[in-house]
Amino acid sequence: MSDDAVVAQVGPYQVELEEGKAYLWCRCGRSSRQPFCDAAGHKGTSFLPLRFVAESTGTFNLCGCKSTDDQPFCDGAHNML
Questions:
Q1: What distance in Å separates the CA atoms of residue 66 and residue 71, rounded to the nearest whole number?
Q2: Contact 54/15 with Cβ under 8 angstroms?
Q3: Which of 6, 72, 74, 75 has the highest count of CB atoms within 10 angstroms of its CB?
Q4: Which of 12, 8, 9, 2 is CA-nearest to residue 73?
Q5: Side-chain-side CA neighbours of residue 71 (13 Å)
Q6: What is the rounded radius of gyration, in angstroms, for the C-alpha atoms of the chain?
Q7: Residue 22: how many CB atoms within 10 A of its CB?
Q8: pLDDT per residue over 15-70, tens digit each?
Q9: Which residues pair with 16 in a beta bridge?
Q10: d(CA 2, CA 24)
């Protein structure tokens, strides 16, 4: 299996996050639960999910292309693909 991230979606995933709740963002792009980790997609790769805690409740854009420099949030990197 390739050790390169897969572009799960060219563009962000809009998701509702809850303040204080922990989430696991998929870094590899192989999860069946995008943009979150399914604990199986990254098997056989060097990828691990990114654990983060939401700082506030609301709708957020999480990166789908896996190229962001602001993990897990979209920074527009998909516009360069």
A1: 8
A2: no
A3: 72
A4: 12
A5: 16
A6: 12
A7: 9
A8: 999 999 999 999 999 999 999 999 999 998 999 999 999 999 999 999 999 999 99
A9: 59
A10: 21
Residue recorded with tokens 């999860």: 31
User: Could you tell me the two tokens for 35?
Assistant: 């943009």
| Six token digits for residue 55 | 């700082």
The token pair that represents 48 in the structure block: 């691990």
| pTM assigned to the model | 0.92
Tell me, letter by letter, the H, E, C secondary structure of the chain: CCCCCCCCCCCCEEEEECCCCEEEECCCCCCCCCCECCCCCCCCCCCCCEEEECCCCEEEEECCCCCCCCCCECCCHHHHC
d(CA 61, CA 11): 9
